[in-house]
Amino acid sequence: MHKILDGRVAIITGSSRGIGRAIALRFANEGARVVCNYVSHEGKAKEVVEQIKSMGSEALAIKADVASREEAEQLVEATVKYFGRLDILVNNAGILIKGGIFDDLSILDKLIDVNVKGVINCTRAAARIMMEQRYGRVINLSSIAGIGTSAKNTTYYAISKAAVIILTKRLALELGEYGITVNAVAPGLIMTDMVKSQSKEERESILRLALERSVLRRVGKPEDVASLITYLASEEAGYITGQIITIDGGRTDFLTRSC
Ligand SMILES: NC(=O)c1ccc[n+]([C@@H]2O[C@H](COP(=O)([O-])OP(=O)(O)OC[C@H]3O[C@@H](n4cnc5c(N)ncnc54)[C@H](OP(=O)(O)O)[C@@H]3O)[C@@H](O)[C@H]2O)c1
Questions:
Q1: CB-based pocket (< 6 A), ligand 1
Q2: For residue 1, what pLDDT is reported?
Q3: Strand partners, 59
Q4: Is residue 212 part of a domain?
Q5: In the prediction, which pLDDT does 113 show?
Q6: What is the separation of C-alpha 66 from the centre of its chain, rounded to a whole number of angstroms?
Q7: CATH number, domain with residue 27
Q8: Residue 40 falls within a domain, yes or no?
């Protein structure tokens, strides 16, 4: 039976947990060979690899801090050395640190290092291979925070995710002529460690907001995002580039002007 990622090789940054893990499992299920990148949770990344192997697919866990240009380059080099090619890069690795304009600017620096420079570091390294192949798919993780939601005390995070949006459009412009598409997804609230690590009060407040404002009246699952990204990573999405696709259960504050 034909699988939509048959024969493809993919790096999913930050795929030891959360959305990245769901993408890795789904890609493998669709026939891709997968590199599960992580920065600290080696055991979790290895569990994902074992799960993929038990499904009869190939996978490799590689530690690399995407904020480091050198480590991002080594991640891509090790992938190509092991699998012989690289077709898909999902820039999923990301961090959320609370903070707004009255907080220390070092918080913004950390967010930019991982959420923005991480995308640049990995894409730069991967694009060299994809340009030679004249084929590639790059999918970046933005957030509805980068489009303009009102969750309190996340201004610095929102800045980093807004940067991913313009980066996606500019990368699409630069790489299109080489047969490389670049798109971003902007999820609403998805239940992962990123959300679970918030304080009880904050968690309850953002959950309540997401439930009230989503027309589907539910919080997102990592698998919801993985489905969309699998399509964008496939050959079938070959005429889509430079797009930011929101996946948030239909937020009423975006769908209507007043409510
Ligand atoms: N959850 C949401 O509601 C939501 C909404 C919108 C957008 N997003 C975005 O979706 C992406 C995934 O979020 P998530 O909720 O799945 O996060 P998560 O559960 O906190 O997982 C984060 C993943 O990123 C990895 N990571 C963190 N810093 C890294 C670095 N410097 N280098 C390499 N890997 C690194 C972690 O690796 P280790 O396990 O090794 O630490 C982990 O695999 C992020 O970009 C996030 O901003 C999430």
A1: 13-20, 37-41, 44, 65-67, 92-95, 114, 118, 141, 143, 187, 189-190, 192-195
A2: 81
A3: 34
A4: no
A5: 98
A6: 12
A7: 3.40.50.720
A8: yes
